[in-house]
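User: Please fill in residues for this 115-position structure.
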C-alpha cells in the first residue's frame, strides 16, 4: 500500500526507511539541493519551486545541504537528535520591545475609544 505522504511537497518520506522528514516552508519553499534523512542518514536530491515538488527524491552522495526541521519514524516516534534535525528558530535573548500590532487591530482599538 502506498503512503499518503509519498507525493507531498514539504514532507519528504524517505524511500529507504519511510521516515517522515518535515521540511520548513521558510527554508525549503524554493530549494534545489540535497537533504539528509533524519531516520537512516540517506541523502536525497530534491527540488521544490514555490513549495511544489518537481520530481521524486533521487539518491545522492554526501555532503548534504540541509536537514529537516522535524521528523517522525514510520511508527510515529519523534526524532529529536540535533545531529539529525535542525533546531527550531529561537527568539534572540536580547530582544526588547513590544509586539507590532497590525493596522486592523489598531483601527479596532480606535473605534472603541470614547470620543
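Assistant: Residues filled in for all 115 positions:
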Amino acid at each position: 500500500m502506498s503512503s499518503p505522504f509519498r507525493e507531498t511537497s514539504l514532507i519528504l518520506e524517505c524511500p529507504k526507511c519511510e521516515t517522515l522528514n518535515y521540511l520548513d516552508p521558510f527554508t525549503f519553499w524554493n530549494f534545489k539541493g540535497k537533504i539528509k534523512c533524519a531516520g537512516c542518514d540517506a541523502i536525497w536530491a530534491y527540488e521544490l519551486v514555490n513549495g511544489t515538488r518537481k520530481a521524486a527524491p533521487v539518491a545522492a552522495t554526501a555532503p548534504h545541504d540541509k536537514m529537516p526541521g522535524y521528523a517522525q519514524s514510520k511508527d510515529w516516534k519523534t526524532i529529536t537528535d540535533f545531529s539529525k534535525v535542525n533546531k527550531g528558530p529561537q527568539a534572540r535573548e536580547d530582544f526588547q520591545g513590544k509586539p507590532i500590532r497590525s493596522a486592523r487591530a489598531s483601527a479596532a482599538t480606535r473605534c472603541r475609544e470614547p470620543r
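For context: The chain has one domain: 1-87.
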